[in-house]
Amino acid sequence: MATKGNSGELKTRSFVYIFILIGLCGSFYILGAWQRSGFGKGDKIASAITRQTDCSVLFNLNYETHHGGDAVTVDASDSAPKEFQPCDDKYIDYTPCQDQMRAMTFPRENMIYRERHCPPEEEKLHCLIPAPKGYATPFPWPKSRDYVPYANAPYKSLTIEKAVQNWIQYEGNVFRFPGGGTQFPQGADTYINQLASVIPMDDGMVRTVLDTGCGVASLGAYLFKKNVITMSFAPRDSHEAQVQFALERGVPAVIGVLGTIKLPFPSRAFDMAHCSRCLIPWGANDGMYMMEVDRVLKPGGYWVLSGPPINWRNNYQAWQRPREELEEEQRKIEEIAKLLCWEKKHEMGEIAIWRKRTNYDFCRQQDAKPTLCESRNPDDVWYKKMEACATPYPETTGPDEVAGGDWKQFPQMLNDVPFRIYSGSVPGVSVETYQEDVWLWAKHVKAYKSVNNIIDSGRYRNIMDMNAGLGSFAAALESPKLWVMNVMPTIAEKDTLGVIYERGLIGIYHDWCEAFSTYPRTYDFIHANSLFSLYKNKCKAEDILLEMDRILRPEGTVIIRDQVEVIIKVKKIVGGMRWNTRMVDHDDGPLVSEKILFAVKKYWVAGENNATSLE
């Protein structure tokens, strides 16, 4: 919809109405998704269409007639669903497991207070987190990399604290991100090219990166140019909203810290780990933090450390730190790296790069060896204490064999059979099972696109798969326009997160009985396959749905795939959550008991009590 200005040129109205056409039994129905630009009032015609479209009706499911005596009755009673009220405006940026007030009650030693501390049952909120007034749909990628609407994260402190470091600038009604950082004020591109002179980033060999203490994630933002995907993390601390800014920019990030608990990633996950002035005391606690990086690095992976204490001789005065302190800090780092059998590949200026050996053969020759971890499962990490021990390499049969399998280029690795599969490391998952899963999800995603025809248009940048399995949903969606956070539930029967990383994708362990480590409104599209069946006797569906609502952007999309009786229950709950929904049959037809619920979260902001906010 457009209006002509005085000059005759077309001007887009402040609301763009996107029609998602749903084909059911030869007819098409409209599921509304509003995209708010942040300026002006809603379009009256589109508003009328929304009012005329009853998104609560189930069209032609006829589940009972296809299943004989075992029919499941759709709850078509007049009983209204429980209506969830908006939370107080003070909860606009609420992060339940990283709440600032709760954090201050925990010890500061080893950053314990910045770790996850979730509220007990009696303190959980049972309301809808509001968006701030003026909230606007983020700009499409790649513009979002450089610009974020001010109203979405109205915090100017970083523009002052980091003014000389080129992190972020405030310009009118947007924040601009020039691509600088504490360690790369000349821009991330220049810095990345320095790294690429040592690390093979240009040929698809390096695909997954871990950025510790990421700031506003400019490294991850610019690594996308090289088709490299970065998992960035930083604590919720005095650098207000840094992870929130990262996600608003369309860059993968979570709230997290290297403290006392293992990182929520599998072993051998990343091709490269990076720290640029991340303030992590790498030499402390007997090298425990470097040993945790070693656990998550692939054999042959790289560790980059830039900033203090590297090149301390030339910088100790500028850093305003004693020479002796910096010298000892670097000595410890070098000592631990040697103990871990890392090879130092490069040191120039304030950048040092080490490489983990491709297998353990070379390390056997060392006199000094680290204590090896006793745990038989290096991927068992959820709320497990970090240890000052080295994770053993997978076994090899010769000095030239790469432990954990040869490195492959992306995108070849996306659908090739991963090492963990063909080596039999995942019980119950064969090569045939894997290949069938790849085919099946390509089919499912094609069916999704026939219902929501804007899935791969660029409208959805930040996507989450809440029960990711082998990562085939994300693989079927793979595109430079989007990325997927593949979540491996800690109660899943099979832990396949390592497989997901071997496909060149990223993900994280999480228990959906707790809040996810992110800010509100950070995902455009959430997918949940059999999640509610998985958690049926573990925690309330209502709590999981409220968490989904918290992390979903206004006008964001949800697809829930589950058994029909579960879908009906879920649909009734979200009927009180300001979501428009549509339930459809399985792509193989109405005889299949699995159904799909499509939903769109309505636009509403703090201070508004109406459900649609279309004034």
Automatic annotation (TrEMBL):
Intracellular or extracellular location(s): Endomembrane system; Golgi apparatus membrane; Membrane
GO biological process assignments: methylation
Pfam family, one: Methyltransf_29
Main location: membrane
Keywords: Glycoprotein, Golgi apparatus, Membrane, Methyltransferase, Signal-anchor, Transferase, Transmembrane, Transmembrane helix
Coiled-coil intervals, chain numbering: none
GO molecular function: methyltransferase activity
Protein topology in the membrane: Single-pass type II membrane protein; Single-pass membrane protein
Superkingdom assignment: Eukaryota
E.C. number: 2.1.1.-
InterPro entries reported in the protein's UniProt record: Put_SAM_MeTrfase (IPR004159), SAM-dependent_MTases_sf (IPR029063)
Transmembrane segments: 15-34
Any one of the GO CC terms: trans-Golgi network
Membership in a protein family: Belongs to the methyltransferase superfamily.
Stated name of the protein: Methyltransferase
Organism: Durio zibethinus
